[in-house]
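G., the chain you wanted modeled:
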Amino acid sequence: MSYAERIALRLTQAQGRKDIRILAIESSCDETSAAVLCGRQVQSLVIASQVETHALYGGVVPEIASRAHVEAMTGAVAQALEQAKTQPDDLDAVAVTYGPGLVGALLCGVSYAKGFAYRYGLPLVPVHHIEGHISAAYIAHPELEPPFIALVVSGGHSHLVRVSDYGCHEILGRTRDDAAGEAFDKAARVLGLPYPGGPTIDKLAQQGDDRALLLPKARQDGYNYSFSGLKTALLQAVARAQKQGVQLSDADVAASFRRAVVDQLIDKAELALRDTGLKKLVLAGGVACNSLLRSRANEAAQRCGARVFLPPPVLCTDNAAMIGCAGYYRYLKGCFADMTLNAVPSVSLPKG
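Predicted structure as tokens:
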């Protein structure tokens, strides 16, 4: 049988079933991850991190990331299948991140997923990376259902999204320049702190005074964010203090910067809750691990009579489980790709 005929047979056999078993692959940046999910239940999750490798360079080096994905991918998939006690023939589909992200890194995952899907006659489900981050909350909170507001903050993305249904998104606002995670990394370099900057600044900030350094707020722009001016203001403030002989502790600087970033994120999220009347707020993305952001999100939600849904840290950073969950709902909608699927480093969040 041809690949198309095998896919048709698979879909016919799975028709009406809820226990759809999906192999998911994530390789958009510097984590090689594979997972097996049954519906939105995680059967296994494997993450091969490259953080130590890229820490030598103070950030992700795309070429090195791609080579590391090639080396780790086969082992990660094999380990995920073994942990889930699943054979390839037991699967119903393969879900993979196709964008956005680093093009070389994405290609590693997309190419492997296409080969695996073709070899075993499995439907191929393309998943948007940000949709994956949002879907992590479905795994952590089985009771969660749309509609809700999602605040997605990571090293590459800062989005405020209205999720009206599974896979249906409306972007209310986004960063005009740097992402929040990117801003934290740049601030860490100013302070001479190691990569990745977000967790380092969060830990150091807990020892500092977040009002020791007054940093400006970005001008009002609807639900949109801007962090590049905040980074520049930090540079200027530190340089000015040094010139004047004023001693600023790294902890105070980290705390002040963290507060300025979180203030902006929470202000816009709370505004969205009030304007839409929705009573659920989801935090997603790597920066959702930030301790101040998590506590301030709870406070904002209480003021609006809403509830916050916080995935655990392992589901906030890049992982294949979130891709598998998003892929499950894409599968139910019949959103499949053929062997022409390509990596798309810059692609809009699907509206439906």
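The chain has two domains: 3-136+316-332, 145-310.

Shout if anything looks off.
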